[in-house]
Amino acid sequence: MQITFLGTSSGIPTRSRNVSSVALRLPQRAQLWLFDCGEGTQHQILRSDLKVSQLSRIFITHMHGDHIFGLMGLLASCGLAGSVERVDIYGPPGLNDYLQLASRHSHTHFSFPIKVHAVRPGVVYEDEEFTVTCNPLHHRITTFGYRVVEKDRSGRFDVEKAKELQIPPGRIYGQLKRGETVTLADGRVIDGKELCGPTEIGRKIAYCTDTIYCENAVELARDADVLIHEATFAHQDSELAFQRLHSTTTMAAQTALGAKAHRLIMTHFSPRYAPGNSIELKDLLEEARAIFAKTDMAYDFMTYEVPRRREKILNAENIIHNS
Fold first, then answer.
1. Catalytic positions (predicted)?
2. What single-letter DSSP state applies at residue 222?
3. Are the beta carbons of 35 and 64 closer than 8 angstroms?
4. Is 235 annotated as ligand-binding?
């Protein structure tokens, strides 16, 4: 799972930062998922190592322009290129109407199926590998944050150990690989879990923007391997944050701390913190790290490989249990 930041500015683009979009690349299934799609996102994809042909899902947080104005252009280009098979889009009510109107008035016809899903709190997508849930955040309009959870996978099955124990291959191996307990013909009871390596713990990613500090964001980020959270304002400008219902650096850090997240990556920065101003972006990073040390500051085209956690190996005394 690799995260690529395609836009890290808030409201308007700058010379070095485009507006909001984050890509999640899933190489094991050759898929690309997008979270928000601000104006110019398709250009950012072209400048990156991402393959638009792998685009399969887009998750929209809310209907503000800096999060959706690139959506129609991206979909239209995908249709002209003929490289995308199907795109599922998830977002708040009104998203489907917006796309339908834009398509009708621009006379754009897609050559591939597009399905728009109006999300509600809870599970919005699930398959054999991933579950995606959403929760409402606290912003000026209806806004959702998303949580992506990779399901746990059994560790590698130790075939050599199974042979040493003279376990006959075949259907039994399949059962043991799934961690099941099997009784052999000679009466021995084999615990499959103890023939497998450490469980591969599924990775967790939370994406929370735009919002002021709220408990729903903490819940989305609970035990996340990485929390991507907006930090539009410095702590000194907290009054602006409360007026506009955006987060400060300290709010983002407090969310990560309260959720016991493993890493915080801040994004969605106000252009007011440009180099040479009284407060610069490096100051925002220092503010957040004072509360949550494992904080990074995103920049356009930054990539982050989400590390995998492994379950601790138990000191099992017996693989074989005599019946």
1. 66
2. T
3. no
4. no
Is the CB of residue 47 less than 8 Å from the CB of residue 23? Answer: no
Q: Which two tokens stand for residue 297?
A: 């500051």
E-strand stretches of 1-98: 2-7, 21-26, 31-35, 55-59, 87-91
Contacts of residue 170, Cβ cutoff 8 Å, sequence gap at least 6: none
Annotated binding-site residue? 158: no
Residue 239, C-beta contacts closer than 8 angstroms, at least 6 positions apart = none
Radius of gyration of the chain (CA): 23
Phi, then psi, of 249 in degrees rounded to 5: -60, -40
Paired tokens of 200: 């591969």
Note if 66 is an active site residue.
yes
Can you read off the two tokens belonging to residue 234? 């410095």
Which of 36, 66, 237, 300 is catalytic? The answer is 66
Residue partners of 212: CB distance under 8 A and separation at least 6:
138, 139, 241, 242, 245, 246, 247, 251
Tell me if 66 is assigned to a ligand binding site.
yes
**Is 109 annotated as belonging to a binding site?**
no
pLDDT of the chain, 323 residues: tens digit per residue: 999 999 999 999 999 999 999 999 998 899 999 999 999 999 999 999 999 999 999 999 999 999 999 999 999 998 887 678 899 999 999 999 999 999 999 999 888 999 999 999 999 999 999 999 999 999 999 999 999 999 988 778 888 888 888 888 888 888 888 778 989 988 899 988 888 888 788 999 999 999 999 999 999 999 999 999 999 999 999 999 999 999 999 999 999 999 999 999 999 999 999 888 999 999 999 999 999 999 999 999 999 999 987 644 333 333 444 43
The two tokens of residue 93 are 């009510």
310 CB neighbour count, 10 Å cutoff? 12
105 labelled binding-site residue: no
